[in-house]
Amino acid sequence: MELIFEVRDAEEGGFWARALGAGIFTQADTWEELRANVLEAVRLHFEPERPPRLVQLHYVRDELMVVEAA
Predict the structure, then answer these.
(1) How far is CA 66 from the centre of its chain?
(2) In this structure, are strands 54-59 and 2-9 parallel, antiparallel, or unpaired?
(3) Which H or E run includes 42?
(4) N or C end of the chain: which has fewer CB within 10 A?
């Protein structure tokens, strides 16, 4: 089983991550800290059950650009 996390930039800085299809959410100031927090949250969430074999972090970045009319 693979668990996919949507990762986005947090407005106040850092990142947040939300698991798709599972009630897991975490955040961190750095990418390395986020990775550690995601793994810890997955272990805690699936503790009595079997945890997923793979965790995928899917980083989504939104950028708005103004297009000036010619």
Answers:
(1) 28
(2) parallel
(3) helix 31-45
(4) C
- Please, are residues 15 and 25 in contact by the beta-carbon 8 Å criterion? no
Structure tokens at 63: 């950028």
Select from 57, 55, 59 the least CA-distant residue to 9.
Answer: 59
- Show the tokens assigned to 3: 């668990």
- Which numeric CATH code is attached to 2-59? 3.30.160
Q: Tell me: the pLDDT tens digits for 14-65? A: 999 999 999 999 999 999 999 999 999 999 999 777 889 999 999 999 888 9
Smallest Cα–Cα separation from 57: which of 24, 34, 28, 29?
34
